[in-house]
Each structure stands twice: as structure tokens, then as C-alpha cells.
Amino acid sequence: TLRDHAPGVPRLFTMCVEPAPMPEFYGLVDLWCPVMSLYDPATAPVRQKLGEKVWWYVCTGPGAPWPNNFIDHAAITHRIRYWIMEKYNVEGDLYWSSTYWAYKDPWEDPQSYVNRPEGKDPAQVWGNGDGYLFYPPSRERPKGPLVKGPCGSIRLALIRAGLEDREYFRAYERRVRDAKGLAGSRAVLDSLVADFTHYETAPEKIAAARDRLAELVESVE
């Protein structure tokens, strides 16, 4: 087996059909990574207590009201997913590509589909912006070599904001380690997120919650 020949290499398993973690693969997986809508909040904590890790991912699905990285989703969904990750103690967020724009210009055509040299396949449309968070560095196709970094999207900036939001929880944990003390940050979290598809969408309330977390961090010497 892989574990016998490469015991130091963790085994990641992505799943998009059944809820996960799933018993059929217990003992074979080090890092579970179901699509977000198939994350099982009952079995995941059990596997984490055994030393396994749990991530999730979004791609062509799930659709609204699940938060994804689509351009035509409300901007706040790109950020709030990291608060939802905190609520369920999900350790990582996998995304399959950030520059999926071969054979087309995403500045002109933001839709994602099965890309082929001969053009798009209208029968296999994936989602608006699915698979790319960066754009080519220039709107106009360069006439020669262009040594320049890609252009980051607004969605990428919101994802960064969500990761920064979550770091406030880590900063607070490093100062307060007892369950009673952590109840304060948990209350802030629960005020924004009820479950996977019910969450705060007002940007000013999320900003206020982040300020409250900062106050909690500063309140502990």
C-alpha cells in the first residue's frame, strides 16, 4: 500500500458524490476533502480527534445559497465561507484552479466551461468565473512576450479578507485557552453564521464582528 511504501506522504481524498468522511475509507485517508455541500458535521470531528484532517472545496458546485466563488454570487459569500469554516472547524479550503482561462479571454468572456481550441462547449457550462481568481495582466492581447504578473480579482481580495478574519480567532486562542474564555469569540461567530446556507450578508455587520474579535484579543493581557 501507499502507507507501507511512503508512510510520510499524507493521502488526500476529494469526494463529490456521498457525504464525507465516510466509513468505507476509514484508516485509508489522512486528509478528507469533500465538496462543501457534502461535508458531514457529525463524522468530521470524530476523524479529527483521531488525528486526521478535514478540508472542503467548491468548484462547479454547490450553487446558491451555498457560498462559492462565482462572480454572480453576492460578494460577501466569498468572504463569509471562512467564517463558516471556523464554525465547523474545517482546516483547509481547496480550489481546483485560479487561472483557468486557456483558449479564451476572461476579460471578454467570464463564463467557465470545458475549454477546447475550437471553442466552448455550451453543453458543459460550469459557472461564471469558476476556476479563475486571477486575470491576464493586460486586457489587450500583447503582441509579444509580456513579463508581468496576473491581475487579482475582487473575489481574491474578499477571500484574503476572509482568511484574515479567521486569523483573529487564532490570535485569541493563543491568549485564551480555556473553554469559558473562548465562549466570547464563539458568540461573535454564532451571531454571523447559523449554518452552511444561513449567514449574515451585510458587510457592515461582518466588519463590526471583526472589530469585536480584535477587542477580545486586546482585552487579554
Question: Topology of this structure?
Answer:
Elements: H1 2-5, E1 12-15, E2 31-34, H2 44-49, E3 53-58, H3 76-87, E4 92-95, E5 111-113, E6 125-128, E7 134-135, E8 151-152, H4 154-175, H5 179-192, H6 203-219
Parallel strand pairs: 1-2, 2-3, 3-4
Antiparallel strand pairs: 5-6, 7-8
Helix pairs in contact: 3-4, 3-5, 4-6, 5-6
Commentary on this structure:
Helix 3 (76-87) runs parallel beside helix 4 (154-175) and helix 4 (154-175) packs parallel to helix 6. Strand 3, helix 3 and strand 4 form a beta-alpha-beta unit. The chain has helices spanning 2-5, 44-49, 76-87, 154-175, 179-192, 203-219, and strands at residues 12-15, 31-34, 53-58, 92-95, 111-113, 125-128, 134-135, 151-152. The protein contains 6 helices and 8 strands, in the order H-E-E-H-E-H-E-E-E-E-E-H-H-H. The chain is globular, with a radius of gyration of 20 Å.
